[in-house]
Each structure stands twice: as C-alpha cells, then as structure tokens.
Amino acid sequence: MLYKRSSQLFAEAEKVIPGGVNSPVRAFKAVGGTPIFVKSAKGAYLYDEDGNRLIDYINSWGPMILGHAYEPVVEAVIEKAKLGTSFGMPTELETQIAALAVSMVPNIDKIRFVNSGTEACMSAVRLARGFTKKDKIIKFAGCYHGHSDSFLIQAGSGAITFGSPNSPGVTAGTAKDTLLANYNDLENVSTLIEANKNEIACIIVEPVAGNMGCIPPNKGFLEGLRQMCTENNILLIFDEVMTGFRLAAGGVQELSNVNADIVCFGKVIGGGLPVGAFAARAEIMNYLAPLGPVYQAGTLSGNPLAMAAGLAMLKALDSDRAIFERLEEKTQYLHEGIEKVLKENNIIFTINRIGSMISVHFDASPVVDFKSAAKGDNETFKKFFHGMLNEGIYIAPSAYETWFITDALSYEDLDFTIRAVEKVAKTL
Ligand code: KE4
Predict the structure, then answer these.
(1) Is there a single domain that holds both residue 251 and residue 281?
(2) Which residue of 85, 98, 276, 391 pairs with 266 in a disulfide if CB–CB is 3.0 to 4.6 A?
(3) How far is residue 354's CA from residue 11's CA, in Å, rounded to a whole number?
(4) Which domain holds residue 339?
C-alpha cells in the first residue's frame, strides 16, 4: 500500500492543526506511521488519497452502522440544506427525532439534543448534580465519556493511548469530585459509596465498555450498580454514546433489562453528523433550563442538517429491527474466523465481543477491566495494525479501542478480512 499523498497532506496539516489532526486518536501515535487521509467512502469501504481501498472497521468510531454515504441519510441532508442550514429556532424536525428516540429507548420520557457525546455526558453529570444536590461522581478507570474536565481522570480511548489519563489543565478542585472505580468490580464501588456517604450525585458507566477495547459487563455488574444507586439516592448514568442504537434499538437498557436514570447518546443517533443527546424520565429532564434551574445550551443544538441525518438513520433502524441480529451474526462469523487463524498460528490473544462490537487483545488472560486491558502486548498490536492496513483492512489505530461492524460488510468482506488476519498472523 502506498501512502505518499497522505504523508504530504499530513505534513501540510501539521503546519496549521495541532498534531495535524482534530482528534488525537487519528494521529496514529499509538501505532506509529502517518495517518491515512480519506478522500471518500461508500458502504463498507474507505478510499484514501493514494487511491487505496480499505475495508473499514472503525466507521467513524461507530456512527456508520449502515455503511458510509447511506443514501437515505445523504438525501435527507441534501434536501434539508436547500431549506436553510441553521436557525437557532425550534423546528418540527427536532420533535420528530425526539419522539422517535423516546419510542425506541426504554425508561426515557424526554431527550435534549447537543452536538457531541462529550456534551451529552458533561450535561448529564451537571443535571445529576443539580437534581440530587450532591457533587461527587463515580467513573470507571478506562471508561471514556469525552474530554470534559470531570472525565479526564484515568480516562480511556485516546487518553490512555497518550498516557495522559489525567490531563494537565484539569484542576485539583475538579478532580477531587471524581471518584475512580474498577470496571466490573462491585465491591470497589460499594467501598467508594460507603466512604463518601450522601456525597455522590451519580455513577457514570459505559454499560458495555468500548474505550479499553470492548469489555462487556460481567453478569450482575449492571444490576449491582442499579441496586446500589437506588439504595443510596445516586443517579445511574448509562453512557450509551457507543452502544446506543447499535447493540439494540433500545441499547443496553433493552439488552440488560437494567434501567438507567439518565442515558447519553452520540455517534449513531446523528447518522454521521455532529449529534449527541441525553435523556431521562420527565421528573429529571424537567430540571433543565428553561423549565428548571440546571443550565445547558447550544447554538447548533438540534441543527436541521444533523437532525435530518439522525432522523433518517433512526427511521432505518426502527423499521428494520432484524439489522441488529444481522450485525451480531456477522460479528460472530468474524470472531470465529479470526480466532481459528490466530490459534492455528499459535498467537497469544483473547477476543472480546458483544453485538457488533469486537476487540482483539494480544494477551492470554481475560480482559475485564482497565488493568487487564493494559496487559496487552502493544508491540504485537502495532505489527498487527500495520499488517492489516497493508492488506487493505482499517482497524482502530490503538489497542484501547473497539471495532465497529457495519451492516454494509458482506460475508466476502469478512472472509477477505479473516484471510488477511491469517497472512498477518504469520508475521507476528
Ligand atoms: P464525542 O465527544 O467524541 O462525540 O463522544 C465522546 C464519547 C463519550 N462516550 C463514549 C462511550 C465514547 O466512546 C465517546 C467517544 N469515543 C471515541 C472513540 N473511542 C471518539 C474518537 C475520538 O476521540 O476521536
């Protein structure tokens, strides 16, 4: 694979954009080499600036669940753009997508749209603090809820990759209100709650973690969090920015039958345009301005183009619920194929998978939390990443990410990918 043009473009970008990228994980720092500049994408494929075609397993970090340039979304955005691109005034479209989202997701009455997953999670925590009149939050090491100050404490995703899970610029005053727990460790959470009696506003959790690789909750973990929150007047926030409208129409609440108090969304809900959202029962959401005292706002919140894309996406998922089974079947097929060829080549690995999320870890032990995820052999991962790229497969440029399967992937694409893993395994 040639990357001459991408390298030239990266050198240009570095002159005017910090690190040449607008989001750190894109910079390939964890795997080395220069980032790929994409020219276009369609379905399961990316077409880069050097004319290479790549099978995409990142899909913009989750949104492109139906494949790139999905016609109904593209058409909806084009038509809407002709009627104006932003008004800063209410539109019927916002009510339509809000009503559809509320009908698809359990245990929410109202939803507020924002422009990113970070904004959704940041606002959800402020709402929880305002509603409970308590200051502290519990988050889990390795979970990532965006780059708001309160979350950059042992954060996952790019924060781990760059070894700055506790980012400079986050004040001690902020950090003291963020308590850190271990994922899948209920005893640890219970100890934190006891030590901070009546001071904790919320527990925010990725109900399926996707920012330290893919880590499903152990049996009883979410149920345990629910019970502890109910018993201690703590709000349970499910950060479903990754899992919402991906693992099921109703997300992990539907899969687990565990009800969160506030749910955060991003990625899929915007169909590839900048959309985040947070939702809860009316009693909580009515605490938000202009109805209640908790302030939250945004010039481009509910932007018509973003809402048009999101509505087209949610309509497609709502009308074809079989997609979630198709995604699960394709991901299982890929899992079994990769597992077979890695075993045949005596590679030490473990694979985590749930629904259309999967991750490959180069370590033998089960990956159930940040500590076990960090044990993965990163040198092997780097070779794997670049080997797959050379075979025309684009996976996350970091071991601390999950792959996102899209319905646009054919079984031929999956077989091609498995054969690529087989070739690369021989070089590891
Ligand atoms: P955004 O602000 O990036 O839209 O969403 C933040 C966020 C919140 N919650 C979860 C569970 C998330 O996964 C994310 C963002 N995910 C990363 C990928 N691991 C975004 C990629 C990036 O930072 O460029």
Answers:
(1) yes
(2) 276
(3) 38
(4) 4-69+321-425
Same domain, 163 and 291: yes
Question: Does ligand 1 have an atom closer than 6 angstroms to the CB of 57?
Answer: no
Same domain, 315 and 328: no
Measured in Å, residue 341 CA sits from the centre of ligand 1 at 31
Cis peptide before 168 (omega within 30 of 0): no
- Within this chain, do residues 43 and 162 fall inside the same structural domain, yes or no? no
Q: Domains in the chain: how many in total?
A: 2
What's the CA-to-centroid distance between 145 and ligand 1, angstroms? 7
Q: Return the CATH number at 112.
A: 3.40.640.10
Does 239 contact ligand 1 (Cβ within 6 A)?
Answer: yes
Cα 45 to ligand 1 centroid, rounded to whole Å: 22
pTM: 0.97
- Cβ proximity of 137 and 202 under 8 Å: yes
* Domain's final residue, options 281, 302, 319: 319
What is the bridge-based pairing of β-strands 262-265 and 235-239? parallel
State which of 17, 26, 59, 61 you would mutate to test the pocket of ligand 1, scoring each by most atoms of that ligand within 8 A of its C-beta.
61
Task: Using pLDDT thresholds of 50, 70 and 90, give the confidence band for residue 153.
Answer: confident
Tell me which of 263, 297, 319 is where a domain ends: 319
What span, in angstroms and rounded, lies between the C-alpha atoms of 36 and 48?
Answer: 7
Question: Residue 160: its pLDDT value, please?
Answer: 66
Which atom in ligand 1 lies closest to the alpha carbon of residue 400?
19
pLDDT number for residue 166: 76
Q: Which helix (H) or strand (E) holds 311?
A: helix 304-319
Token code pair at residue 245: 């409208």
Whether 3 is a known active-site residue: answer no
Average pLDDT rounded to a whole number, residues 324-340: 98
